[in-house]
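B., you asked whether I could sanity-check this one before it goes into the benchmark set. Here's the sequence:
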Amino acid sequence: MARSSYSEPLHEKTFFQYVVILLIIGAFAFSLLAYLNTVYLRDTLVPKTIDVNDFLKKLTAHEEMGAFVGVSPLNIVQVNQNNIANLQTQINGLDSTFIGSFIVQYTDAIVIYNYANDEIKGTVSLGQQQAQLPADFNAKLNTHPELAGLENEQPVGGQIDEGSLNTLKQQFPDVYADAKVGDFLLRYETKLIIYDYNQDSIINSIDLG
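And here's what the prediction gave me:
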């Protein structure tokens, strides 16, 4: 009987030790999972820091991007798991293979650029708005001294809508402070012109490069 009364608390002690060990293992596993989840969120939701100057230098080094050297884009968005569904409603043909690439928006073009592989995956020109210009548009525009020497150059661009104007004023308030919905935003090789056709006035003229 004495042997039996001694072995019972020993078993209870051993059982308690196993429980403690299991709890420690469980806590370690939980911490490991939490850490891995944190790493995953950091890597997928927070893009690695990229030098903007290097980014634009590599992008505009491509032959088809030569006209954009020195031109600041309106917006740069990286495609990821969180925003791809929304972006697909705006850009046809965008699929999971574009995840990690950047959508670079200019006033007259949208470029999809894979920075890691230094590859332009697609471009969309917005210059077709030029076909909607009034018949006397160029004649009136070219009388302004800001356009001296640019009379034979065909600009790209179009009228500014409300959504674009809000974005432009947020990102470049000094440039677009006096711009209005309906003004024309025109990019030449060396100048950016904001033109009010109805009032026949140059709202702003910016040297590029």
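One thing to flag: Residues 128-207 form one domain. Otherwise nothing jumped out at me.
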